């Protein structure tokens, strides 16, 4: 056992260096001075920190361990242990971990590969003190540059479409108000597994412009939707405001709070298009605001989550409308 322990000690120390480095900056970027500029959603944390982690693990892993370990497995294991530690210590929730994991893997690999290139072209291993100092300063340098710029807003639109074997009049009845939805109605989805609440129902105070829909989700999540476009059997459109008074603080990770600093859902619209075969083409689209310095990457995730929520709602409406046309109850277990 001493032989095994000694043999693996350099690799373990390299991984440990990466974990400690990332955890240290996790706490640094969660403090007031950095929170003003986005905190853990700053590029200096999401890009510079895993980049530095990759450099450190490659530097402290002996060359004799092989390129695959130095430049892939060491940074990835360090990243995984860092994120698991953050999760176990309740520093991050599942949603945030799932979103940043691919990014951290890729950027830490880039950092390790850059180190390999530098080592090859310098013909010697960089000095420990100089390298650690440079890597430690990197996130601060990037943060200073990043703080000079305003965080951009990105308005995104997500659209889903379904064809329903029912006329617009039937479909209209099932979208202006949505009767209670059970988990079996929705079927399984990754968005449930990572912690997003399922939709429950939508009520309407009165028909016409000015009517207010209350769209409720599990765990106390509610959206207040004020109708501003009402064309019976053709179009229903509304502005959306999260009811922050009903949403418990533990429902979402702090960085994905709907209506918060980084993300908001602004509008929703249903459009009904009659088809020659007597069916209805139902379109549901929504508009969101995303405000981070990594909007293109974050948008991939918000688009996916919104699309999955909308897709499942449309399938519930489709089953109910078609069951209504057949004069029977919908099959709730259908996916």
UniProtKB/TrEMBL annotation:
SUPFAM superfamilies named in the record: Bet v1-like (SSF55961)
Claim: Ion transport is one of the keywords in the record: no
Membrane-crossing residue ranges in chain numbering: 12-29, 41-60, 72-91, 97-116, 128-145
Residue runs in coiled coils: none
Keyword Ribosomal protein: no
Keywords, in A-Z order: Membrane, Transmembrane, Transmembrane helix
Stated name of the protein: SRPBCC family protein
Species in which this protein is naturally found: Hymenobacter oligotrophus
